[in-house]
From TrEMBL:
Its EC number is 1.5.1.5, 3.5.4.9. InterPro entries: Aminoacid_DH-like_N_sf, NAD(P)-bd_dom_sf, THF_DH/CycHdrlase, THF_DH/CycHdrlase_cat_dom, THF_DH/CycHdrlase_CS, THF_DH/CycHdrlase_NAD-bd_dom. Residues 8-122 form the Tetrahydrofolate dehydrogenase/cyclohydrolase catalytic domain. Pathway: One-carbon metabolism; tetrahydrofolate interconversion. PROSITE patterns: THF_DHG_CYH_2. Catalyzes the oxidation of 5,10-methylenetetrahydrofolate to 5,10-methenyltetrahydrofolate and then the hydrolysis of 5,10-methenyltetrahydrofolate to 10-formyltetrahydrofolate. One of its GO terms (biological process) is methionine biosynthetic process. This is Bifunctional protein FolD. The lineage of its organism: Bacteria, Candidatus Fraseribacteriota. Belongs to the tetrahydrofolate dehydrogenase/cyclohydrolase family.
Amino acid sequence: MSLRGQLIDGRAVAQTLRAELQKEIHELRGQGIVPALAVLWVGDDPASGIYFRAKEKLARELGIEFRGEKLDAGISLDSLLDELDELNCDSEIDGIFVEFPLPDHISPEAVRNAIAPEKDVDGITPVNLGKLLIEQEGLIPATPYGVMMLLRASGVELRGANAVMVGRSEVVGKPLALLLLNADATVTLCHSKTRNLREHTLRADVLCVAVGQPRMITADMVQDGAAVIDIGLNWTPGSIVGDVDFERVKERSSLITPVPGGVGPMTATVVMKNTVEATKRRVAIKHVRH
Ligand code: NDP
């Protein structure tokens, strides 16, 4: 009988990655190289505060220098762009991460365009997204990259598989669809205008969901034996739930990520991985120039 409802343990996969990073950072520090991450939290969004502090804690645990700045919600776009420019030019900073959402008067596009691509540890700049499209080495968006690591760690065969991505945001859905495509899956990208969503999801060998609606993927929408990756994080009174009706979908799926404890723990860890990656590239470029 095939396996049913086996959990993909994001905490364990993230822990393994953290141990690898810790070792790598220790070696870099031994050579006098200190990876450094700057995180900007603009305004008072409470979820951003949680993510900001989680990155601070993790960076310190791993030995990454953390420079966090909490900026007033009323900051002007110009002042924010000046802050970013300073960080771009600061030779001691390897990675820059801006917490989203931003206050309404700050254009996300302007912020996205202002981060130096080589320091863009969430892979949100046009340069890094473009590199993903043409399969060049760049910095890969953290959450989608974390999902790919979970699929790999769980032994999910992507080549030739039908992968269905529900949600097409720039931070999750679109880049994850590209990563799945680059891994030779046959990819369907669904969104709010998709007709008969269920027809698509039922064909998925690998079903990834990033919508932001509690338990919107029900068991009747899932193919028997599918691997299900739930990226959604929805705060309901007293708990956090995903976009997938976990308890029922678990019975149909072969593998499934829980919420919490699935994709969530990977994201901050991958930001640290990207920071170390950016550090190594900076050092390599310095060596080439000298
Ligand atoms: P967005 O709101 O930016 O995008 C949501 C997407 O879902 C859109 O593409 C939208 O379509 C689509 N959608 C909305 N309703 C439907 C529907 N009924 N059927 C099909 N598609 C629909 O969200 P994000 O991608 O930023 O985040 C999605 C979820 O993932 C959230 O819960 C967020 O908290 C979570 N998240 C979790 C992370 C983690 O580390 N675990 C990291 C980032 C996000 P359209 O484009 O047509 O509007």
